[in-house]
Design goal:
Layout lengths: L1 E3 L7 E3 L4 E2 L13 E2 L1 H13 L3 E2 L2 H8 L7 E2 L1
């Protein structure tokens, strides 16, 4: 996770997922970059429970500029 902050805005966590799918068999290259769909869904539900909303980078722009405020992640 990366946290982005501009001069007039609160820090916004930026989530990075390389691949949301079942991981390939053990020993396959880059296996650790996979997140199972059910794990991803559980993570998103947990963030929602904490009051966060997931937004696209385009929708985050007003938050990054300090024009909007709220519990959001990108």
């Amino acid at each position: 996770m990366t946290v982005t902050k501009t001069a007039n805005a609160a820090p916004i966590p930026i989530l990075t997922y390389h691949q949301i799918a079942q991981a390939p068999s053990k020993g396959a290259p880059y296996r650790s970059l996979y997140v199972a769909p059910e794990d991803f869904a559980r993570q998103m539900k947990f963030l929602a429970l904490l009051g966060y909303r997931g937004l696209s980078m385009g929708d985050l722009q007003p938050y990054l500029r300090g024009k909007r405020h709220g519990k959001v992640v990108g």
